[in-house]
Amino acid sequence: MNKNDLNPNASPEAAYGARLRSLREARGWTQEGLAKRTEYSSVHISAVENARKPPTLRFSRSADRAFGLTGEDTFERQYREIRHGSLLEGFPEFVGYEGRAAEIRLYEVGVIPGLLQTPEYATILADSAVKRGAITAEQAQERVALVAERQAALVRTPPPLVVVVLDESCIRRPIGEPAVMDAQLARLVEFAELPNTMVQVAPFEMGTRRPFDLPLYILTMADRSLMSYAESAQRGHLERDNRFVLPILTAYHQLQAEAPSRTESVAVINQLRKGTP
To answer: What pTM did the predictor assign?
Structure first.
């Protein structure tokens, strides 16, 4: 395929390839020159540029290093948008930051959050979305793979601080067979016992003392910068302006102060596993 035949609007992969070629030519590099800088072959570079081979995370990061790209306008971000096209706006970018965050705070309603899901629990949620016609079977597989990828990013040195507040509906809502739910609740207890985690369950009776009604994530990066991610049923929004993130962080601390302690919350989860109301 000649470069003139490549239509950037043909597909996300074509747009990725066209941008790769444009940046390469702007620097006066040949495909061989970019290959040396990324430690890939020139044949591989040509295949990505012409959308014959899809980009990978490793390739995208190598290209970002070669071109000196950082922030929002990276090939890694473009790759994640290609791979996770079924996800809400802003979420692929958020996941990239989450994997490097020093502190992760989250509040969830209705379901166990992805960072704490067992593979079986995650699969049931994804399969249910397929049955509703919301996503394809291939996209469901990508969602389950993303859960594993996000969890793997937590196993690093030093590990991030992970603070989790769950609305009581998360542990009360049955997902799958009883054995699946029991294993998921057991996973919550194991997670709560890690030295770098804090798990609390916000009971229904908190009522209006609960400041949030929708899922929310707050990240603290290594340089102490803050960002938040919140979503509705149809849209997600990543916020990096401290004027908006700091009030959310304050409300989150108030939520933690109102919610039962980790010990009390784990006791509630264990009682639920035993069938105790």
So the answer is: 0.70
- Cα separation, 232 vs 15, whole angstroms: 28
Residue 138 lies in a domain: no
**Claim to verify: residue 224 and residue 259 sit in the same structural domain:** yes
* pLDDT tens for each residue of 101-159: 999 999 999 999 999 999 999 999 999 988 988 777 877 888 888 899 889 888 888 99
HEC secondary structure over 118-186: CHHHHHHHHHHHHHCCCCCHHHHHHHHHHHHHHHHCCCCCCCCEEEEEEECHHHHCCCCCHHHHHHHHH
Q: Is 104 found in the same domain as 79?
A: no
**127 in a domain, yes or no?**
no
Same domain, 167 and 265: yes
Do 164 and 254 share a structural domain? yes
Q: What confidence tens digit (pLDDT) does each residue in 195-212 have?
A: 999 999 999 999 988 899
